[in-house]
Amino acid sequence: MKKFLTVAAIGALVAVAGCSGKGENAGGTAKREAGNWKTDVKLVKFEVPGMAPEMKTQMTQMMEGASGMDQCLTQEQVDKEDVAAELAKGGGECKWSKKEVGGGKIDVAGTCMQNGQTVDMAMTGTMAAKKTDVTITTKGKVPTGGDMEMVMQMTQTHTGPCKAATTT
């Protein structure tokens, strides 16, 4: 069960890394604005049959541990971002049934396979050059039986110029 949850968590985070915080440029490809970005993560729903309460607490803390993190994106990094390429990479082997990214919106869904486990993922939300609000839903079967569902809301906000300590 721990391996399944790790796959689900990594899949969600990899997928978000590929499509979060973007705005629109003239070509319709989503782009973030260079500068400092603050990330907030909220675990909206986390249901896993048979999971020990302490393990659920650990997973909740791990997911929400990303809240308040700052990341500096240089103009060079922004120029190299490619949402379509990131979605194509996915977290493991992903097949996207829906990849609608544009017009200030994101609506992506698909199935990822990693370490022999299948996870259905969906991401919906809004994107702008200075703010993104995306909800990620991850569903799948747990090896011990039953269905797992995790819903996470990730908000990223452009907070201004890069801070010296966050430059990557």
UniProtKB/TrEMBL annotation:
Keywords: Signal. Pfam families: DUF3617. Residues 1-17 form the signal peptide. This is DUF3617 domain-containing protein. It comes from Sphingopyxis italica. The lineage of its organism: Bacteria, Pseudomonadati, Pseudomonadota, Alphaproteobacteria, Sphingomonadales.
